[in-house]
Amino acid sequence: MRNLIVAAIASLFFASSAFALDASCEMKAVSKDGKALAGAAKAASIKKCEKEAAAATAPTCESKAVSKAGKPLAGAAKTASIKKCEADAKK
């Protein structure tokens, strides 16, 4: 029962943060002259905004360069890890 309550609260939190992201991106969907966009232009603007927001919150390859023990990598191991991470991100 406790797990169910925790799961419900967590889902509400994530839903509210996703709604806030949609609302802020929707508010940014304006033309150069300040008028609100509509239709396909609005949808494209919101999609671009959400993609940029997701990329900004995603962990960087630099921060992912850690050993199995959780310690930061150094030298050639760090370089190889970052290179692989960036290659995987382009796919």
List keywords for this structure.
91 residues, mainly alpha, 2 domains
Description:
This protein has 91 residues and is mainly alpha-helical. The chain folds into two domains: 1-58, no CATH class; 59-91, no CATH class. 73% of the residues lie in helices and 0% in strands. It contains four helices and no strands. α1 crosses α2. The longest helix has 27 residues, at 2-28. The chain is elongated and about 50 Å long. The N and C termini lie far apart (41 Å). The model is unreliable at 13-20 (pLDDT under 50).
Q: Give the overall average pLDDT.
A: 80
- Based on CA atoms alone, the radius of gyration comes out at 19 Å
N/C terminus separation? 41 Å
Q: Show unreliable segments.
A: 13-20
Short overview:
By secondary structure, the chain is mainly alpha-helical.
Walk me through the topology.
Blueprint (H helix, E strand, L loop, with lengths): L1 H27 L10 H19 L3 H4 L10 H16 L1
Helix pairs in contact: 1-2
